[in-house]
Design a protein that fits this description.
single chain; 277 residues; alpha/beta; TIM Barrel; globular; disordered C terminus
Length: 277
């Protein structure tokens, strides 16, 4: 069984305008793409670009508030429930237009106490019941709505070093939320980079929780560059995923250390089965 890799167009091929990145990914041999958000573009225009480039849109995020201002989702914020639910409907419309069968939810951030060395991982935000209950209610709504549309819903932990106050910073907390929601249509989006920053133990988590993981993303640490530039032993992880029979996509959500087209040497170096044109 070979692993399937998708190009995250919010990180890769940024040498090109966004609409040109789909074709660039296809020419590089990647058959799947993903990105943060499609909402700045007309659905019909995007659908035509996807069709002509011949790639599959694997996943993108629900609307996540004011991204440029540093917001990373609104799902845990009680005062923004209506905004979240409206965003679910909008995301489903785009997913249906683009043939995308996965949508990712970012929980959002809450204030945290600052302190300690700047290089340290900040503490997780207080597990306030009002935020937890809001997130669970919103995810129940979203899981039901996406299930009716034939779309899988994901919840992604983000590390608290890069995203201070993010409400779901670890796999353990994400699984706690999944348990409370109680929907078969909700899984974890497991980002290896965020997990390495917060908890490590990557292989064991994949082995024990793979059935609850609906999508995987990768980048090395430190630096969030391509595999092989940091401390994570990707050949071992890839081999283990093959052995476990992981059927999904692995999103390349890294910052290329040079030109994007020159950053794929790790695929050959790690002897990953990868179909190039």
């Amino acid at each position: 069984m070979s692993l399937q890799f998708s190009a995250n167009l919010s990180f890769l091929f940024t040498e090109h305008d966004f609409l040109d990145r789909f074709g660039a990914a296809a020419r590089a041999g990647l058959k799947g793409v993903e990105f943060h958000f499609p909402y700045d573009f007309d659905k019909a225009v995007l659908a035509e670009v996807v069709l002509t480039s011949g790639v599959e849109v694997v996943v993108f995020n629900l609307p996540a508030g004011n991204w440029a201002a540093g917001e990373r989702g609104v799902a845990c914020l009680p005062e923004r429930k209506a905004e979240f639910q409206d965003g679910v409907g909008r995301a489903i419309e785009y997913a249906e237009a683009l043939g995308c069968t996965r949508l990712n939810c970012l929980a959002g951030a809450v204030p945290v106490l600052r302190g300690g060395p700047a290089s340290a991982v900040p503490p997780a935000p207080t597990f306030a019941e009002k935020h937890f209950e809001t997130l669970v209610d919103n995810l129940r709504f979203a899981a039901a709505a996406t299930q009716r549309a034939g779309i899988r819903l994901l919840l992604e932990p983000l590390n608290n070093r890069d995203n201070p106050g993010f409400f779901v910073p670890t796999t353990a907390r994400a699984l706690q939320v999944l348990d409370a929601v109680g929907s078969r249509n909700l899984q974890v989006q497991y980002d290896v980079y965020h997990a390495q920053v917060m908890e490590g133990d990557l292989a064991r988590t994949l082995e024990t929780q793979l059935a609850r993981i609906g999508h995987i993303q990768i980048a090395d640490n430190p630096g969030r560059h391509e595999p092989g530039t940091g401390e994570i032993h990707f050949p071992f992880l890839f081999k283990r995923l093959e052995q476990l029979g992981y059927p999904g996509w692995i999103g390349c959500e890294y910052k290329p250390s040079g030109a994007t087209e020159d950053s794929f040497g790790w695929l050959d170096d790690f002897h990953v089965i990868f179909a190039r044109p």
